[in-house]
């Protein structure tokens, strides 16, 4: 099994006043030649956005974009919709940029900061028709068991959102002292594991809040919670 540990304080950071951004991979003005991507996973940004602030209209193409609000309300608008779409804590949003889309994302609250993960995954199909979707996921359904949030559009998983890549994004809320074994789809897949909060052990390595670890070259791995933890798994093809 190959493991690469990334401590939370090793991430790139940008302070724009209205935006506090932590970058797991090279992004914007942050560049690290050793952190360009993990397989098809290109971006994992941990953003905190001030009330009423956000990103104006800007373009994307040929990228699968996933937003996961952790606290607060995200408001999204694109050239596929005339109205703002609210994405609240507990929901997940996906957008297949395909041949090209323009969108804006802002904090939908007047007085509360928004914290969200934004994930970019390189697609396995280019120049598709842009599409948008969002879904509310019940927190109770990931207590000590895996909850799939996003999967391939080619898979028959009606309870998850769909993207154009043989990838899987999932979460688990693991109680203290509980263990969980994650099974990887194939030898060509790896998993980027992000500890949203808490503390857990993976193969003698301890991960605390916002620490992450790359896992590859194995069929499965076990996680044991030292404290109650919420964990995000991003499984992607390594060669694509």
TrEMBL record:
Cofactor details (free text): Binds 1 Fe cation per subunit.
Domain Quercetin 2,3-dioxygenase C-terminal cupin: 150-236
Keywords, in A-Z order: Iron, Metal-binding
SUPFAM superfamilies: RmlC-like cupins
Binding site for Fe cation: 58, 60, 103, 105
Domain Pirin N-terminal intervals: 11-121
Signal peptide: none
Domain of life: Bacteria
Protein name (database record): Pirin family protein
């Amino acid at each position: 099994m190959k493991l690469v540990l990334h401590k939370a304080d090793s991430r790139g950071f940008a302070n724009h006043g209205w935006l506090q951004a932590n970058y797991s991979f090279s992004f914007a003005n942050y560049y690290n030649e050793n952190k360009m991507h993990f397989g098809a996973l290109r971006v994992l940004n941990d953003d905190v956005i001030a009330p009423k602030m956000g990103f104006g209209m800007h373009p994307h193409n040929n990228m699968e974009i996933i937003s996961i609000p952790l606290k607060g309300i995200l408001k999204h608008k694109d050239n596929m919709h005339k109205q703002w779409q609210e994405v609240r804590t507990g929901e997940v949003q996906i957008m297949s940029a395909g041949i090209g889309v323009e969108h804006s994302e802002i904090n939908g609250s007047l007085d509360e900061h928004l914290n969200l993960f934004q994930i970019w995954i390189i697609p396995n199909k280019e120049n598709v028709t842009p599409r948008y979707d969002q879904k509310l996921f019940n927190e109770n359904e990931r207590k000590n068991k895996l909850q799939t949030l996003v999967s391939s559009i080619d898979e028959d998983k009606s309870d998850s959102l769909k993207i154009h890549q043989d990838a899987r994004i999932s979460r688990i809320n693991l109680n203290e002292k509980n263990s969980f074994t994650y099974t990887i789809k194939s030898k060509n897949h790896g998993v980027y594991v992000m500890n949203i909060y808490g503390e857990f052990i993976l193969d003698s390595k301890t991960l605390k809040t916002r620490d992450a670890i790359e896992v590859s070259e194995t069929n499965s791995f076990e996680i044991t919670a030292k404290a109650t933890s919420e964990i995000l798994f991003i499984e992607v093809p390594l060669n694509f």
